[in-house]
Amino acid sequence: MSNSAHEAAEQLRAIRALMERSTIYRAISAPAAAFAGVLSLAVSAWMWLHRDPQEAPRPVVFLLIWLGVLLVVSTVNTVLLYRHAKQRGEVFVSSGMKHALRALLPPLLAGFILSLLEVNQAGVAGRNSHTNIAALWLLFYGLALLATGSFSPRSMQALGAGFFAFGVLTFLPSVREIGGQQFPVAVIFMATGFGLLHLIYAAAVWIQTRQESTSDGA
Amino acid sequence: MIDFSQLDKTIHEKGRLAIMSLLAARAGWPFQDLKTELKMSDGNLITHLRTLIKIGYVAETREMKTRPQTSYALTKEGRKAFETYIGLLEDIVRSSRG
After folding, report:
1. In this prediction, does ipTM exceed 0.90?
2. How many residue pairs from chains A and B have C-beta atoms closer than 8 A?
3. Which of A10, A13, A18 to probe the B interface (max B CBs under 10 A)?
4. Contact A33, A203 (CB under 8 A)
């Protein structure tokens, strides 16, 4: 390739990178998703061991435990996004991040408020509402990810669609009937959604990144 | 033979090319967002934007929100010039591959 062609190719690559950076934003890094998956499975496994009705945590404790998981994962994700931005010489609080937060926060907040109301109802009526809390978290997390669809990569849109579909499924009476007891079903919901779906997403992004780096190096 | 002399000199400058690339990717960039994304000083960014506005490639919109905000977007002419510029770069790469 001649010098001018090489320069032109470099120029095109720089333009493409700049345009992608401003239009595509990955709000959840693959390592953070893998961490979220593993932590969710670990927490679910611990809850499964305490699935006996006498040992099962109350709905409010169930909600607080998962809120703790969300805070830990969010912190790890923020640190990883910060490091990634610094490594690439990009700004951390970019316009992409602002867009992502504006899209993510309303559905997440709505899901959280509804699950708080569910816990409150459970306290008043003495009702076992673990499955409703799990279903609300799955559905609204899926909605939050789908809300970033206009500027997120396809893998994140697929993750959002997965959570949304699974969230809807968890509300179906026929699905609830299969489960029987409420608490173990809620644990299975959380393990499948926040555990498995995150791990599948992390693996898909990792494979895609490897393929891209191989083809770039070729 | 296509070469760099045929490229639009206004766009070809590194800073202005970066501005044009961002504006081509998404319409309506507030000044602060452009500044943050491109890590340019106020003076440098204003100078480049003025050049692009003067030639008719970029349009400026002033809005009064909680505080005054100036946004920038490509004009029809600017988009066409940017597409021509990209097309020429692609031609240069293609012609070298024969």
Report:
1. no
2. 57
3. A18
4. no
Residues B96, A12: contact at Cβ < 8 Å? no
Q: For residue A89, what are its two tokens?
A: 């010489």
Gap between the Cα atoms of A170 and A25, Å rounded? 29
Contact A110, A61 (CB under 8 A): no
Q: Is residue A30 a contact partner of residue A201, using CB atoms and an 8 Å limit?
A: yes
pTM of the predicted structure, to 2 decimals = 0.72
The verdict on a CB contact (< 8 Å) between A5 and B95 is yes
Q: A11 to chain B: nearest residue by CA?
A: B89
Sheet with B68-74, side-by-side order of all strands: B29-30, B68-74, B58-64
The two tokens of residue B67 are 């505080």
> In which region does residue A180 sit, left (phi positive, over 0), alpha (psi from -120 to 50) or beta (all else)?
left
Determine contact: B44 vs chain A, CB below 8 A. no
DSSP A34-82: HHHHHHHHHHHHHHHHT-STTTSPPHHHHHHHHHHHHHHHHHHHHHHHH
Residue B15, SS3 per DSSP = helix
Q: How far is CA B88 from the centre of its chain?
A: 16
Comparing alpha-carbon positions, the chain A residue that sits nearest to B87 is A12
- Alpha-carbon distance B56 to B12, whole Å? 16
pLDDT tens for each residue of A148-205:
988 888 899 999 999 999 999 999 888 877 766 678 999 999 999 999 999 999 999 9
Q: Amino acid letter at B36? A: T
CA-to-CA distance for A108 and A148, rounded, in angstroms? 12
